[in-house]
Design brief:
- By secondary structure, the chain is of the alpha/beta class.
- The protein has three domains: 19-98 and 280-303, Rossmann fold; 101-186 and 310-320, NadA-like (Rossmann fold, 3-Layer(aba) Sandwich), CATH 3.40.50; 193-266, Rossmann fold (3-Layer(aba) Sandwich).
- The chain contains 15 helices and twelve strands.
- It has helices spanning 19-30, 42-47, 54-63, 75-84, 100-103, 107-115, 130-134, 145-150, 164-174, 193-202, 216-219, 228-237, 251-258, 286-295, 304-320; strands at 32-37, 50-52, 68-72, 89-91, 121-125, 138-140, 158-161, 179-180, 207-210, 224-225, 242-246, 263-266.
- Strand 7, helix 9 (164-174) and strand 8 form a beta-alpha-beta unit.
- The protein is globular and about 55 Å long.
- The protein binds 1,3-dihydroxyacetonephosphate and iron/sulfur cluster.
- Iminosuccinate binds at residues 37, 54, 125-127, 142, 211-213, 228.
- This is Quinolinate synthase.
Length: 321
Amino acid sequence: MFTAANLLPPTTQLPPTDLFAAIQILKRELNAVILAHYYQEPDIQDVADYIGDSLGLSQQAATTPAAVIVFAGVHFMAETAKILNPGKRVLLPDLNAGCSLADSCPADAFATFKAAHPDHLVISYINCTAEIKAMSDIICTSANAVKIVRQIPLAQPIIFAPDRNLGRYVMQQTGREMLLWQGSCVVHETFSEKKLVQLQMAHPTATVIAHPECETAILRHASYIGSTTALLQYCLQSSQQSFIVATEPGIIHQMQKQAPHKQFIPAPPLNNCNCNECPFMRLNTLEKLYWTMKLGIPEITLAEPMRLAALRPIQRMLAMS
Ligand code: 13P
Ligand code: SF4
């Protein structure tokens, strides 16, 4: 049975054989733009109009002239697009595409935490729900977190939520103490330091690059740390030929496409599993993308008072980056 939540196609209707062509036609009919995160499966990246990190995607969402935004990413990203575009339809191929990091910061517990530190400015990583954004003073992404924290007066105490790993990394980079909410991403905490070192020994000329959502044990082996876009740009500009990539391996599709002569090796997870692939991002498929555009569901909706409260800290981020 077809439901908006899981977007299984109706049993009576088969998807077209050429999904790429069908999606292009629907895009024109709907005046839609497809925004995709680098962690989406390669087919989705190949059909997207724009592929980017969380900052790039929110900047695109803020400025797109399209009438419909089809968001190939996770819920908080599509919700951010809706916060920025109340008059546009924002579609997400699978409503179950959540985020362990956003889930690790429930609104009621965070409200209590915030109330216990009334003198603190709240900076929240964009990987959080609209409720958390509404309780925040400024939003940041992995691309601009250091830059934003550096703009806050030194005497101002800061709560940083929800990612403890990004928070710790920002503290190291800025020399600022911050009160960290203890949330984390299941994907970026899955990498094994022991296996990473073994992989480095097997590939002694490879450069380790990592996303700041990784734990310190992984980050200390990295020659370069940055958001997904920053990691891609680093690989393209570097004279090095081989890279061990400590983030979700979806990004390797773009790395390999844009630098086919270079070697990109995914950092190994703890167990012999695919746990370095984000289970939420990977809920979206090309077929679900087609059905979303064909049927116009699932659509992201948000109560206006909540949208307005969440908009203010996002606008501050866009102005500060
Ligand atoms: P960026 O897109 O900011 O690199 O963050 C990665 C991530 O985990 C998104 O969920
Ligand atoms: Fe959330 Fe981590 Fe998946 Fe990004 S990779 S969407 S932070 S669970």
